[in-house]
Amino acid sequence: MSDCLFCKIIAKEVPAKLEYEDDELIAIRDINPQAPLHVLIIPKEHIKRVADLTEGDTDIVGKMVLLAKKIAVQQGYAKDGFRTVFNSGPNAGQAVMHIHLHLLAGRRFAWPPG
Ligand code: AMP
Ligand code: ZN
Fold this sequence. Notes:
The protein is α+β, with helices and mostly antiparallel strands. It has one domain (5-105): HIT family, subunit A, CATH 3.30.428. It is 20% helix and 22% strand. It contains two helices and five strands, in the order αβββαββ. β2 (25-29) and β3 form a beta hairpin. The mean pLDDT is 97. Bound molecules: adenosine monophosphate and zinc ion (ZN).
């Protein structure tokens, strides 16, 4: 998708702080972090929203969650805990229309969310 920010980051047309990359996924530092650790797990395939996922995406979504867990554990947040968030659509405040999993850690988070 030529006008998609995350596709441009994946294509290295826009710089980002890369935490991880393989054939299917990247993980980058969020440009406006909401916690001491704020990483975005992004599939290389352009899928707009969680609401657009299909059965065929089961594997990639599982890999996204497991990568979030791996980064959280590796960076020492397993014991204190961390939050993983998918925003989907306007009411959730999704700003970038290419699915991404937020991984947030390093402080206490409120529940219910705002
Ligand atoms: P969402 O509101 O769920 O769509 O989240 C989009 C996230 O992307 C926000 O947390 C932004 O701070 C983040 N973001 C926007 N532009 C960039 C960028 N160029 N590099 C890294 N993160 C970004
Ligand atoms: Zn995209």
